[in-house]
Amino acid sequence: MTLKKMVDGIVEQGARFCDVRKERWDVNHLVLKDGNVEQMVSGEEEGAMVRVLYGNGWGCVGTSALERLEDAARRALAMAKQNHTFKEEKTGVATINPVTCKEYMPAKIRFEDVSFQEKVSFMKEIHNFLERDWVKSADIIYRDSVVKKEIVNSEGTHVMMEIPRLVTYMVVTGKENGSIQQASEGGGGTGGYELREGAYEKVDTVLDRLRDLLGADTAPSGRLPLIMDHHLTGVFVHEAFGHAAEGDLVTSGNSCLARKLGEMVAGENVTITDDPTFPGYGSFPYDDEGTKARPRILVDGGKLNDYILDRESAWKLGLEPNGGARAEDFRVKPIVRMSNTLMKAGDMKLEELLEDVHRGIYARSSSGGQVSPAQGTFQFNAQVAYLVEKGEITKPLRDVSFSGFTLDTLRKITGITDEMKTGVGHCGKGQSAPVSDGGPQVLISEVTVGGR
Questions:
Q1: Residue 208 lies in domain
Q2: 267 near 413, Cβ under 8 Å?
């Protein structure tokens, strides 16, 4: 039985909607620890997720037994009927135009054409570049993957796509004069083995960061001006703002951006996008509901312009779906997720931002933090920071954190540089999703800064 006949058969039994997402994954994962291969894993798997909407109830069943996909569809229908009997809230899926297409994202060098030996040699070369007397440990993590997807729904959509991705992380630990510090950096994107070249560009970055940390002082605390580098700007717009713009959090009342469309939520100089068509690690041609990917301008000149939406949250909000549904793999249903979340560049230079700071902090890269999209609060840790005095960077700092209210902080952005950079990562929201984030360097006039 074809996928189309299967989903049509479920609708004939009373379902309002049905779709199936069939996937095949090919993954290679390598870990080099202090120059020695610690992990070398290669695997392939395939499976499918069937979703059924009956009344107001959803049924979702994932399976790796493709020969029993019809059984999975029947189980999903039975689950949806059961859920409908308990659910009082009405739901639905917003309308999209059915599409039939095949789209394969390009890879100049396909992963299967490169041997494990060559990949290990590349990692060892990176390790050699990281060797210093004061570097005591260096881990290199490499992962490439190709996912082939086929999405069919009861409305006539039939999408086939192939997405290759590569990522490399470096984690270095140093020791000097009794101080032990750690720095990390990653690179990659959507494409083929040619993306490994980006790792070479990150070597000096991570070494300079570790070198500064080993000689860093503790940070001051209080209400201070703060400059975020490109990476921290990206982390801020992704974590503090982007999650609050996800449609499922908005409709459930767990977002500080609920009912704020058209309102000013940032300074007039701030524009934030989430764009799966941007060449980043979070790129894709269609989302996991078969909706065409398109740029989403979340904040336009300080005004909240859009949310990130799947078809269900778009239906609840009376808005148009914009390709925001993503699933970690065939085992789970798609939920609202970001892709490549970016702040638009401004027209200033870093030197101009520094000139406006009498005493403050220049923070670079991220080492974690936490956010509350519902309360609109955040707390981030910088990997390394620098004290700024009378417009000059004077000394490195460690253990720097900063916190505040997201919308209040966005309104206090007084300077934005004219160049932008992006980074790669994996976002967790019950499921993992590859993403990119980034932007220019940004001056916040005042934020709460704390050190150890």
A1: 3-214
A2: yes
